[in-house]
Amino acid sequence: PGTVIASGGANVRMESGGNGDILLGLVDAGTGSVSLVAERDILDNDGGEWLNVLASALRMEADSNTDGTGQIGQPEAGSSPETNVHAIDTRVATLAATSAEGIFVLESDGLSVDATPPITVQRLKSDLSTTTITDSSLSDLETTDAGSIELRSTTGLLAVNDGDADGSGIL
After folding, report:
1. 3-class SS at 48?
2. In degrees rounded to 5, what are phi and psi of residue 5?
3. Residues 42-79 pLDDT 10s
4. Residue 85 Rama label (left phi>0; alpha psi -120 to 50; beta)
5. Between the CA of residue 143 and those of 10, 27, 63, what are the distances in Å?
6. CA distance 63 to 41
7. 3-state DSSP helix/strand/coil percent for the chain, to nearest 5?
8. pTM for this model (two decimals)
9. Closest C-alpha to 54, from 133, 97, 111
10. Phi, psi of 82 (to 5 degrees)
11. If you write DSSP's letter for every residue of 61-125 in order, what string do you get?
């Protein structure tokens, strides 16, 4: 599956700056939560054959610099929506995501679109000291530049909740 990050149940945070992308192999947080923050795209980098994120809650932000460029996964290109090899493949309980140009997620066993908890990690600095970083709660699935949203489950139910009381779980 490419690069594997396993946290043994602790939270995981990945961030790309400088107009960078996050290219996912597998992030396995087990019962922990995952926060992905990219100035541009969050993409499946394993050819679609493997799980990309295993976690209790998954929070994704593409276009974190708000320049109108960024997507999460990609639309199917020649594959059926049920086997979209370009979607972010997940096994999570709670999902929230925002991007400019689109959100494409293929869930393996059902999830709830809802508010994630705040996700806190300890960043280890080069001098071996740590800094606490907390990404605030994120809710719903939202595109800011009229992008498409495609959420599918191979088995299990998808529940869409309004995580932020704005009247909609998908914007």
Report:
1. coil
2. -115, 115
3. 999 987 778 999 999 999 999 878 888 899 999 887 76
4. alpha
5. 29, 23, 10
6. 7
7. 0, 45, 50
8. 0.92
9. 111
10. -70, -20
11. EE-TT-SS---BS---SSS-GGG-TTSEEEEEEEEEEEESSEEEEEESS-EEE-PPPPEEEEEEP
How many helices (H) and strands (E) in the chain?
0, 15
Residue 152's identity, in one-letter code, is: R
Amino acid at site 78? G
Question: Is residue 132 exposed (0-12), middle (13-18) or buried (19+ Cβ within 10 Å)?
Answer: exposed
Q: Which two three-digit tokens encode residue 18?
A: 């400088």
Which residue is associated with the tokens 């980098």?
45
Q: What's the pLDDT score for residue 32?
A: 98
Blockwise average pLDDT, block size 10, the chain, 171 residues:
89 92 96 96 86 97 87 82 84 97 94 96 95 96 92 92 77 62
